[in-house]
Amino acid sequence: MTEKSNQPDSASRGAASDPATPASTTPSVSATISAGTTADLTDEALTPTVDAVTQAAATIVEAFAATDTKAYFAGFAEDASFIFHPEDLRLNSRAEYEETWRGWHADGWSVVSCVSSDPLVQTFPGGAVFSHTVDTTVETGSGRESYRERESIVFRHLGEGHLIAIHEHLSTVPGDDGSASADSVTSDGQGGAASARSGDAPGTEAVGR
Hints:
The chain has 209 residues and is of the alpha+beta class. 22% of the residues lie in helices and 37% in strands. The chain has a domain at 49-186: Roll (Nuclear Transport Factor 2, Chain: A), CATH 3.10.450. It has a 6-stranded mixed sheet. The protein has a two-stranded antiparallel sheet with strand order 1-2. The N and C termini lie far apart (94 Å).
């Protein structure tokens, strides 16, 4: 009498040990445009144009030059961070910067003029970096002061040409006498993007704020 084997036949063993591999669920190119929303986009669609970046920076600069608090901060994301050389600490959010800004104003600070020169725009999928030299004159509680500084603004691309600033970095210009460049561009809408801060006196800062 032939004993019946309890082992599965070869076909059964093959089916058990070699299950079908599920199809990949990884999206080809996906970019987050807003919270909870994604869209399949190409790198080209994710990369902002130089003109869009220049305009976004110019909007921030013009608002800064006018000491227009509401319009100025509208250009920055809530989670934006800020590094300003006159400040002891990094500002880790827009709210922290707004509080610092109010302190400057309370001490009699305001922007008199803001001039941008030597702009550079670097774009990439998802955002861009805008950098320039900025000459700023401010009114302070102790008198008028002028500064030349370098500034970089990092933008996040929200899609369809819409940009929001997520980081701003202001630094000094080594060995510069602080005088404005003859070929610089003013922040009256004719070009460039500039913000300004005053120096290290209380309530002052320069560039990009």
